[in-house]
Amino acid sequence: MNRTSAPPERETLTFESDPGAGRSRWIAGALVVVLAAWLGSGVLFPAPEEAEDGAVAGNPGPVAVAVRPSAAEQITQYFVAEGQAQPDRMTAIRAETGGEVAEVLAEKGAMLEAGQVIARIGLAQRAAERDRAEAELARARRDFENAETLLDRGVATVDRVARTRAALAAAEAQVAAAQEAVENATLRAPFAARLESLAIEPGEFVALGAEIGRVVDSDPLTVTFRVPQQARGRLSEGQEAAVRFITGEERTGRLTFLGAAADPETRTFAAEVEVANADGAVPAGVSAELRLPTGEARAHFLSPAILSLSAEGRLGIKTVDPEDRVVFRPVEILRAQTDGVWVSGLPDKVRIITVGQGFVRDGETVDPRPEDALGTGARRGAPPAAPDTGAGAE
């Protein structure tokens, strides 16, 4: 018979008797205490508060910027415009009678005197017609004189005298027409000018009214330009104007015409400046730049690089007041040059921020330092040694 034996009961393993069994509980408790102390350190030891301007306490101070003292100067304001040089007179020469060109007495490009002969159209037939008309005039004059003599003697009648007088008048008209035809066959310069073009050759037939050439008088030149409506009140006829042609020539002219009615499309006024050109060095039709003085103003000279825009989009510069605070001052450009601009809207004396203006705001306190102290090198925007009277824009 088989016996089934019961399994022995399992005994639970304990470390009560182990001397290091309670050490782990002390370590865990210590870790909990340390963690709680670390989490509470923010209350017991708070972080330094930020300064009102957002910087952490202990910030080294205001932003350092480079400044340059500037003093206003008296400058001349100019109205500047682009124009075009036009000849004083330019006209086409047309044939006043038809016929074959007998001779050409001038060359293209020649300088002509007033009335100088350019060409002649065949005169043979016209001269013969003139001679016949003159002979007819002589006969009509004799008939009229005989009729008056006979009337005085009582032989002729008053009607006969009237008929001979009418015939005489007709003969005189024929002579005048024949003489005019002869004169029209000679083509002359209408005024002293340059023969700009010539389109005929000897033996060529020309029709009545055909253009045979063109003459141009470029002394003086007339420079035409447009004046905006807001600038017209600052200009007046008779004032001097400096003119610089695209050829490099520079001349002084005078404003001879200023329109009284604005163009309805552009709202600008037509204007003309007359410029002497006796030597003919300036050709007609070239572009020109005009500068007309419009008054004087107090202005500062500075580099356009330091100009900036306000939050409202106004053009201006940033300056430093006596309390070292940034002040944005709106300005207006009066004149532009290649090395800088003249602006108005500033006090006579002011400290202008030339370096660092992009990192400071209006009203902010800064640490202003001279340009040389910050190693900025050459003074940007410094006025030239002598005021520049070159071209500028108002």
Keywords:
conserved putative lor/sdh protein from methanococcus maripaludis s2 fold, 394 residues, alpha+beta, disordered C terminus, single chain, Helix Hairpins, Elongation Factor Tu (Ef-tu), domain 3, six-stranded antiparallel beta barrel, 38% strand, 4 helices
Please tell me about this protein's structure.
The structure is a single chain. With 394 residues, this protein is α+β, with helices and mostly antiparallel strands. Among the domains are: 63-75 and 297-374, conserved putative lor/sdh protein from methanococcus maripaludis s2 fold (Beta Barrel); 80-87 and 217-295, Efflux pump adaptor protein, beta barrel domain (Elongation Factor Tu (Ef-tu), domain 3, Beta Barrel); 123-184, Orthogonal Bundle (Helix Hairpins). 20% of the residues lie in helices and 38% in strands. The protein contains four helices and 20 strands. It has helices at 23-39, 41-44, 124-153, 158-184; strands at residues 63-71, 73-94, 99-104, 111-112, 117-121, 186-188, 193-198, 205-206, 211-228, 240-245, 250-258, 268-275, 287-302, 308-309, 315-320, 326-330, 332-337, 340-344, 349-355, 366-370. The protein is rod-shaped and about 175 Å long. Residues 50-57 and 376-394 have low confidence and may be disordered.
Low-confidence parts: 50-57, 376-394
CATH topology of the domain at 63-75 and 297-374: conserved putative lor/sdh protein from methanococcus maripaludis s2 fold
* Corresponding CATH architecture of the domain at 63-75 and 297-374: Beta Barrel
- Beta-strand percent range: 35-45%
Rg to the nearest angstrom?
50 Å
Counted by DSSP, the helix tally is 4
Helix content: 10-25%
CATH top level class name of the domain at 63-75 and 297-374: Mainly Beta
Number of strands: 20
Structural class: alpha+beta
What string gives the helices and strands in order? HHEEEEEHHEEEEEEEEEEEEEEE
